[in-house]
Specification:
Elements lengths: L1 H12 L4 H4 L6 H39 L4 H18 L1 H9 L8 H34 L1 H7 L2 H19 L1 H5 E6 L2 E6 L6 H41 L1 H33 L8 H28 L2 H26 L1 H6 L6 H7 L1
Antiparallel strand pairs: 1-2
């Protein structure tokens, strides 16, 4: 039985993600720095959840319910929805890490949690790309933008993005699995139970698809669009150029800082099939880089929406309107008895109360 467990662990530790590198049989001296790194990653997960949930909820509330539907608000609404759903399932992952990579939630939640994470991770990145393309077309090709930038066309693009994200996140529903090992239930990628060649092939294909469509293509697209925007704006106004440059720099840098380590470690993970000398580096690096990637979902509302002067003005106006209405209701409620005694004055609060 022990030989069977050792063989099983050797099989899946070479093609699974961070939890599977965390071996309960490692020496205590080796575990101490890994435990520290995992607690740091756990703290980053919590920060992403605490900041991202209210930040994205605010964006969803205003862009989805308070403001007029436009192409721009639709982009930001779907970006916020992608990040919000992504972060909504984060407590499951936080619990997984906090319980020393023990998954007590069953195989279906293992599959569903991984699929939702992949789906919304890809959707978030793709919507960032769509926003950069939209800004580029608006400024560089205004005639084309005026002709084709409609709500109907934007809805078609949104459906396409969600379908593409679902397609790229779909393999998690098939390959994600659970296994019992050393009184731990692990949620891992079971690419194949018996054939290492198929395992290696599937791992390589899925990793490179994720890297190309979830990182390289969006990064290249955003970089080209924003560089063109900078050059175009510089020709118009130095002041506007400065504002645009700082915003664009923040967006691109946040994307680079959050996602580059994640994809570098994912690619580096492929070498584990040939060289196991970097196990400890991957044990520490993959959870930390994953947590850093998760942070991008809480930064998006700040970088893309909240730093916008127009959004700030509309946000303040909406909040002021809500407060004004709330105070008006309280005032009406608080003076109800007086209104009934003085109904002949036809106080507008009374009319509203009577309705």
């Amino acid at each position: 039985m022990e030989d069977l467990e050792e063989t099983l662990f050797e099989e899946f530790e070479n093609y699974s993600y961070s939890p599977e590198y965390y071996s309960p049989e490692s020496d205590l001296e080796e575990q101490v720095p890994l435990i520290a790194v995992h607690w740091v990653s756990l703290a980053l997960y919590c920060v992403a959840f605490v900041l991202g949930i209210p930040g994205n909820a605010i964006v969803i509330w205003f862009t989805g319910f308070k403001w007029k539907k436009t192409v721009t608000t639709l982009w930001f609404l779907n970006l916020a929805v992608a990040d919000f759903i992504f972060l909504l399932f984060l407590p499951l992952h936080i619990s997984y890490v906090a319980m020393n990579f023990h998954w007590p939630f069953g195989i279906w939640l293992c599959k569903a949690n991984s699929f939702i994470a992949q789906l919304n991770m890809f959707a978030s990145v793709l919507f960032l790309t769509v926003i950069s393309l939209d800004r580029y077309i608006q400024l560089i090709h205004p005639v084309v933008s005026h002709r084709h930038r409609t709500l109907k066309n934007s809805q078609i693009v949104i459906i396409f993005v969600w379908l593409l994200a679902s397609l790229m996140g779909g393999p998690a529903l098939y390959f994600r699995d659970t296994v019992e090992f050393n009184n731990h239930t692990l949620c891992y990628n079971n690419f194949h139970e018996h054939n290492p060649d198929i395992t290696l092939m599937r791992h390589h294909v899925l990793t490179w698809v994720k890297c190309i469509f979830g990182y390289l293509f969006p990064l290249l697209t955003m970089s080209i669009c924003y560089l063109c925007l900078i050059f175009k704006v510089k020709k118009r106004s130095i002041l506007v150029s400065s504002k645009y440059s700082w915003t664009i720099l923040a967006v691109v840098m946040a994307f680079l800082v959050c996602w580059t380590p994640y994809h570098l470690f994912s690619i580096w993970e492929l070498t584990i099939h040939y060289n196991s000398s970097f196990h400890q580096v991957l044990q520490a690096g993959i959870p930390l880089s994953t947590a850093l990637a998760f942070l991008n979902s809480c930064l998006n509302p700040i970088l893309y929406v909240l730093i916008s002067k127009k959004f700030q003005a509309r946000f303040q106006a909406s909040v002021a309107e809500i407060l004004k209405y709330t105070l008006w209701e309280v005032s009406c409620s608080g003076t109800a008895s007086e209104q009934f005694r003085n109904s002949e004055t036809k106080n507008p609060c009374l009319l509203e109360t009577a309705q």
